[in-house]
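Researcher: Good morning. I'm working through a list of sequences from a screen, and I'd like to move beyond sequence-only analysis. For each chain I'm collecting a predicted structure so we can compare shapes side by side. This is the next one on the list. No need for commentary yet; just the structure.
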Amino acid sequence: MPTEQQVLDALRNVMDPELGRNIVEIGMIRDLKVSAKGEVSFTLALTIPDCPMRDQIAREARKAAQGVPGVTKVDLTLGAMNDEERKAAIGSAQAALPKLNPFNKIGQAIAILSGKGGVGKSSVTARLAVALAKQGQKVGILDADITGPSIPKLFGLPSGGLRGSEQGILPGVSGLGIRIVSTNLLVPEEDTAVIWRGPMITSAIKQFWSDVLWGKLDTLLIDLPPGTSDATLTVMQSLPLNGIILVTTPQQLASLVVRKAVHMIQQMNVPILGVVENMSYFTCPDTGKQHAIFGPSHAEEIAKAAGVQVAVRLPLDPLIATLGDQGKIEEASLEGMDAVTALVMQPKA
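Model: Good morning. Structure tokens for this chain:
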């Protein structure tokens, strides 16, 4: 008859692809039982209930248990960790991650998250970087949108622009000295598709953090892709974030999706610094009157759901899109960005 220890030893070969440690070590295996008939049952406690990797982890755990000699059946139940267990699991995983390049010193890491695509998150990230740089900060952007990067285009940086050195990967540098790393700086042409699965995306983000020669930065901005999938979880679980800025637009659909992102962030216990409602209004150049083209603002509603007081509303400016297409985002208007930089510079708990 197989023993519980044999099953546990087999399950130690199953890794959580986001945390980079085995599922036994981080406490994901609960209530393990082995009957006299060789029937195995256990609960797989996920870090969050809607973990996008749950099917993969469950499949590999079931396969590992079934591979133990004498096991006749495997009954696996999905569960979820509570807040304290999740903090402990993430904390232990962070301690095991590759350390930051010894030549680097990063003051704070701030993620920019939307939950929904098309809200102008990357342009907000870019303009925030420009505003901080013009205040005298040393700024970097880690483009974590691995399969749909847009940061290099906004700054006019060419594809294939990353080089290596003995100290690490050298980032691209904008006209204002903003240091940028993105998959679009790795590919030979800017329209080359990056067709990677979750584990490769996870690995790339971690390497962008640990292997890039960022040098001394006051602020590293992390531009996240839409949604709550692998890349977002990797950043929140693996990188020492000081906070997250949420970007939305006035449409009710955008607000709904961003509120889902709020719930995920709250489960991960990462502080939300504030809400930025992009394209909130358009100011008519002839009359100076403001028009809510995309409907009434929902910024305060989202800010309340996120448990923050500050909601910043940015105007719709067609010139920003034009300058972004031309790779001249550093020339764009910074109207409203003082309030956004204030979110980044506020004291962190």
